Amino acid sequence: MFNAKKIVATAAIFGAGFAAFSSSSVVQAEPVSNSYAIVGSDTLEDVVNAIVNGTAITGATVRVTINGATLGSFDATGAPYIITKPGGVRFSRPNGSGEGFQALSASIGDANVANNNLFTSGTYQNKGEASVSGSGGATMPASLKNININGQVDLSRSSSSDPKTTKQTAADATATIVRVPFARDAIAIVMAPALATAVCAAEGQTGTCVPYLTAAQLGSLYETASANPTLTINGTVITFKPVIPQAGSGTRKDFLGKVVTGTKDSNNQTPAFLAAETAGYVATGQEHDAISAAFIAAGDAAIEPMSASRWIAMKNGASYDKSGNAVIGAVATSTTLVNSVIASPVTVTAGVYSPNASYYADTTWGRDVFLFVERARIDSAFTAGGTITAGSKYDANLAALLDPTLNTLANTATTGASKVGKVKLAYGFLAPLSTDLAYFAPSYVGSK
Amino acid sequence: MKETMKKNLLRAGVVAAAAAMLLGNIAPAQAAYQSNGSFGAVYLYDGTYTLGNSYTWTGEVVGSASATASDSVLACPASSTGVSTFLSTVGNVATPGSWNAFAPIAFSAGTKNVLQPNLSPSAQINGNALGVKTSGGTFALGVACTSNNGVTVLASFYRTITVTASTGAWVADATAVDSVGNSLPTPTITLTTPTTNAAAAGRTAGQVFVGDVLTVNKNQPAVFPADYTTTYQWKRNGNAISGQTGATYTVVDADGYAKISADVIYTAAGVSVTKSSTQTGMILGGSAVLGGTVSLSAGVSAIQNGFLELSIPTNAAASFGSASIVNNYSVTTGTLGNVQVNDTRWITTDGWDLQADVATFTSGGNTIAKSNLGFAPKVVTGSTTATGVTAAAATTAGSATYPTAFASAAKNADLGLTGVSVLNADLTLRAPRTTPAGTYASTVTLTLATK
b/e for A41-55, b at 16 or more Cβ within 10 A? Predict the structure, then answer.
């Protein structure tokens, strides 16, 4: 950074990169990771970016590095593709928790097995296409499909506890991916101002308007068979225009899992919901974005699920503010609605937004969020049923990054400006309710 | 990530307010030069915010300006535009291009303060921290406040540490305020308001006149620790002038022909250091004059009379050459060797006479009469400091008579500085023709007598 020699050296490295990989890589639009690459959840992208890129949101500079190297975290959205490692391949950008898990699965697949590391994002971004099939959109260039990404992804961010596969036990030989608790978030809802005002009025709220709906009410909206679904609240009929985050979003999957009631597929989608989305009764937007085209188009009746943490981060200026003029509301349960008074997901003190611990503690609407990693890399005893030698893939640096007792990615200490947990708090995250690890099989099998 | 960068730019302005409210109880920084040259004290706290000095290579450690609170900020100068943590050799603290390793960090929003900087050597991600771990040694570890995009170091807060080679375990030296003042500037005195007195009309550069107003300049650099208090003391010929403790001083008549200097006394963290200016030249233009009488009073001590002595080297022996035949005589020549007369009778100056007598030469039962020895006295110049010393006349071999006069010093003659007379004599032995060959021995007896 400070001397000419280093600048010259950097230029030389780039030059070499172009020469060696000119056939597969064109101009690289964004930096690559110096060590580990993290992809996945939109919900977690800003807080992870802050932690690995360095932030002074707490007053102290907090940056997690390892063994003299920086990490790279890649957003869920942006250019349609990313390159994560020096000289690495260009592949379609994983958008959301599910695709992050998918990319991690592809990255750790056995490189000796043909087609075992191929990855295609389900979303060809910036083209307005969305798909949950994992085969890419119709207009996606062939050069972005079925890219071998072996070794290109080390960690995936996930706002969902089980983004692609079902939880296994530690003893399962196929449980080659481990889930590490990262923080605790909560799912809330946001509404257009006029809708929020109408709901609060119907609910008889006289103080600060915190519109709330029950899971059953939300379920009826997101499995609606009507172009203009309504709810009757204390006798007042109110029309809603539901918006749902894009496919692959962990928030979408979590939210649907809690509100829809029909038979759910692996992404918690029911036939009724898919029918409503296909018909446009439920608009598809972008998660944590109250200024998305879909939300704006929904006008005064707009409602969509929202991560409480992202709302706090946006309102505190920690994240790019896409809150627009929407109003945050709550999902009412026996614990969030006490004596008819709703616990708001967030509290505001002197203009600073903070998580409301009681709302976050709700076992339905509060949610732990995670990082996923290949198990053998942080568990020196794991043999995957004898298919790998214990310790052969163990990486002490990666293990240190995920050790909650260290001031690294999994840290949850909220006392002290130098702590990673304090950064998470500023981004609207509390410590996870459970610190237990969980085990999963990879989602990816075969070519796509 | 491209988008992320864009987001970071956009959010920067708003973060300030939020962060300021998140943090409320950060003590003001203390910044007094430390004995190792650090701009201020840096205390080290571990991951539990416990104060310590000894850490592992990867151990969590943050810096604070306080020994009692882990969250006391290090206050960079207001002109700072950047800040880094760094690990360098002690001599390269202010040379970013020569740091062993560093990591750019950020100020607390809206300030130039650095809160809890991550001082773990392993977190210095740029450069070659692992080289330090491998080699071990003495290094500086701390925070550098910079400008010019990191090229210029305005101030450095750091600890001197000793790293154990290979393990990278390290220990920080104790903190201590610079009690010697190595980092403090030396003040100077300037003439700020010259007097208009007529006496100063012919002033030349550097002269100071009674009536001039002098000002002490602390010569502090633009970037200077904020919490030093300074006081002044003006001095006349090195002695404090009562009541003169301001930054300026008007030279008074009493200063005439004296020299003026000023002390700046720096105090911080209970430690005071005095830095002194050089003295002015002699103050001119006062009523004092140079001149007057000097009373002289000298005592005279009586000189003690000394003594007269003859000094002959122990086992003294004359040296003779080989015999040769001259006019059918066996002739042998030699010298007596130096003898010394010391006469320190400074008061009486009696004078002295030295006489020589010779015994008969013998070789077994054979003899040579002493009249056959010629004795030619001489004063050894250069070694003789007494004056008035004269050698006696020589005797002639074959007709000599003994005892004979050797040398004398006249009465009342000056004895010179030391009263030393060094004397010698040339000897000639002419044996009678009937004398059998052989080695003949004799003795010269010297007798010294006062006149």
Answer: bbbbbbbbbbbbbbb
Cβ burial of A383 (10 Å; 0-12, 13-18, 19+) is middle
Helix (H) / strand (E) element for A189: namely strand A177-191
pLDDT band for position B30 (50/70/90)? low
Give CA A117 to chain center in angstroms.
22
Q: Domain residue spans in chain B?
A: 25-172, 188-284, 308-432+440-450
pLDDT above 70: residue B209: yes
Q: Among partner residues A46, A317, A407, which is closest to B18 by beta-carbon distance? A: A317
User: Does the pLDDT of residue B42 top 80, yes or no?
Assistant: yes
At residue B178's C-alpha, the angle toward residues B175 and B181, to 5°, is 170
Decide which of B216 and A317 is more confident. Answer: B216
What letter would DSSP give residue A60?
A: B
β-bridge pairing A212-214 and A327-332: parallel
Low-confidence ranges of chain A (pLDDT < 70): 1-29, 124-137, 338-340, 444-448
Report the range of poorest mean pLDDT among A293-297, B297-301, B383-387, B393-397: B297-301
What is the spatial distance between Cα B132 and Cα B115, in angstroms, rounded to a whole number?
Answer: 25
Please say whether the beta carbons of A335 and A306 come within 8 A.
no
Partners of A119 in beta bridges: A147
Q: Residue B122: its chain A contacts at CB < 8 A? A: 67-68
SS (H, E, C) B168-236: CCEEECCCCECCCCCCCCCCEEEEEECCCCHHHCCCCCCCEECCCEEEEECCCCCCCCCCCEEEEEEEE
Choose between A343 and B163: higher pLDDT: B163
Which structure tokens are listed for A66? 């390892």
Q: Which residues of A touch B18 (CB under 8 A)?
A: 57, 316-318, 351-352, 426
The answer to whether the beta carbons of residues B244 and B214 sit under 8 Å apart is no
- Long-range contact list for A61-64, CB < 8 A, 24+ apart? A61/B105, A61/B106, A61/B114, A61/B115, A61/B117, A61/B118, A62/A417, A62/A418, A62/A419, A62/A420, A62/A422, A62/A423, A62/B118, A63/B103, A63/B105, A63/B118, A63/B123, A64/A401, A64/A407, A64/A408, A64/A409, A64/A420
Mutate to test the interface with A, among B51, B58, B116 (most CBs of A within 10 A): B116
CB contacts of B4 in chain A (<8 Å) are 45-46, 49, 53, 75, 78
Candidates B58, B62, B150; nearest CB to A2: B150
* Burial letters B333-358, b for 16+ CB under 10 A, else e: beebbebbbbbbbeeebebbebbbeb
Quick check: helix, strand or coil at residue B256?
Answer: strand
Chain A residue numbers with beta carbons less than 8 Å from the beta carbon of B131 are none
What architecture (CATH level 2) is domain B188-284? Sandwich (2.60)
- Nearest Cα of chain B lies from the Cα of A316 at a distance, in angstroms, of 6
Nearest chain B alpha carbon to A31: B1
A-B contacts (CB, under 8 Å):
141
